[in-house]
Each structure stands twice: as C-alpha cells, then as structure tokens.
Design a protein that fits this description.
Distance between the termini: 60 Å
Radius of gyration: 19 Å
Low-confidence stretches: none
Order of helices and strands: HEEHHHEHEEEHHHHH
Number of domains: 1
Number of strands: 6
Shape: globular
Largest sheet: 4 strands, antiparallel
Strand order of the largest sheet: 1-2-6-3
Length: 233
C-alpha cells in the first residue's frame, strides 16, 4: 500500500491525505500503528459530499463530526486501519503534534497552527492509523511565516489576536454583533489574510457552518459558567 492509494480511497468522500508520517516512539500513536495519514477536506468537494449526507439533513447536533466518523470508520475498515479523530474525548488524540510531524505545521503569529500548503486553514476530519509502514509522498515545505509580512496580525477587526494570544470573548462579541457579519458569513478574516492558504479557503457555506458552530459552542460555555456562578453565589 502507498499514501497515494489511501488518498485515492479517501477521494470518494471528498477527503484527502493532507499529511502523513511514520509513527515513532513519542508520537502517542495507538499500539501497532506504524503509519498515520491525516485526513482533511479535498478542496470544496468534502462540503459537497457532506451537504448531501443524512447527517447534514437530520437536524441533530455535531453533524459534520458524525459524518466524519461514519465515512472515516468505513474507510478504515476497508483499508484494515484504525480510525482516529480529533473529537470525542477526553482523552483526545494529539492532532496538533501529528500535524507538525505530517504536514509541517508550526505556530503562527496568531497562535493557530499554520502549514506551507494550507496556511491557517489547517484542520483535520480524522486520521487513519495503518499497521504497516507504507510509502509516503515526499513533502518539502518551509515555515510559511519566514519572511512573511504577517498580514494576519492586523486582519482582525477587533484585534482579538493582539499580543500573539486569542481573546475569545472579544472575538465572540464581534461576530455575534451586526458589525461581525463579514466574519460570521464568510469566515475568519485572519485566516483569509494568510498568503499561504489562499488556495485552501473553504466554500462560503462551509465557513458559515463552522462559525455558527463556534458561536453556539462559546455561548453554551458562557451560559454554563454563568449558571455555576449563580449556584456558587
């Protein structure tokens, strides 16, 4: 088996092998796994496939995660692999560390990981843990932040990434306001500003889906903390 064969198999569901590496001690790979293939969107094709899925239409929570779990577990079964996901924990799989190993991901000036090929749009729907050491594609990429004028640092309308940290309340306050419609409907302007990721910008509908999910999650956290404060008082 080769990485290209895995990529070809993933293509039917709009997924692609966006990174891969041979597991070593310290990678926290599941026992018996020798190769990890990271799976992400194949351009806009993933959104097209997901949008036509039962999960997208059933009105239940976590539609994209449930779709990802179903299709990646099916893919894993066909390849004799282990399906791995960045959600469903704790405990959580170390996808950020795996991104560094498999896709040359590094910290960006705005705290998010950045990769040579996808810029700040780096995300993973899951991974396949293969029990054999397969032939991998050669990946050469330098840190995209080296020599970059860092437009990401000034792209946020409310400076939510000032100082290299992420001010979540400031971000949420903006994107839930009328002034935040551009971010809410078209995706994070900081991510869009990254020169390395222009070809990886998802479809607008996908950006809106993720922003709405982010808003729901943050508002739920705020409500829970407020309730805990009331109970403690």
């Amino acid at each position: 088996m080769t990485e290209q064969m895995v990529d070809n198999a993933a293509a039917a569901d709009g997924l692609a092998v966006v990174g891969a590496f041979h597991a070593q001690s310290g990678d926290r790979a599941p026992e018996g796994v020798r190769t990890i293939c990271l799976l992400g969107a194949r351009g806009g094709e993933m959104w097209r496939v997901f949008s036509a899925s039962p999960e997208a239409a059933d009105g239940q929570p976590d539609a994209l995660d449930r779709w990802s779990q179903r299709v990646i577990e099916r893919l894993a079964a066909g390849l004799g692999a282990v399906a791995l996901f960045p959600f469903g924990g704790p405990p959580y799989q170390p996808f950020q560390a795996w991104a560094a190993r498999g896709e040359a991901a590094v910290p960006s000036p705005v705290a998010m990981q950045v990769t040579p090929g996808r810029g700040l749009w780096t995300s993973y729907r899951g991974a396949l843990g293969l029990r054999e050491t397969i032939a991998l594609e050669e990946r050469r990429g330098t840190n995209p932040c080296l020599g970059c004028p860092a437009p990401c640092l000034s792209a946020c309308p409310v400076d939510a990434f000032a100082g290299g940290t992420y001010d979540v309340p400031r971000c949420v306050g903006h994107i839930t306001s009328p002034a935040g419609a551009v971010c809410r409907d078209g995706g994070c302007l900081v991510r869009q500003a990254c020169p390395a990721g222009h070809e990886a910008i998802p479809p607008a509908e996908q950006c809106r889906f993720h922003m709405e999910a982010f808003i729901r999650a943050r508002l739920a956290v705020g409500a829970r903390l407020a309730e805990e404060d009331r109970a403690a008082g």
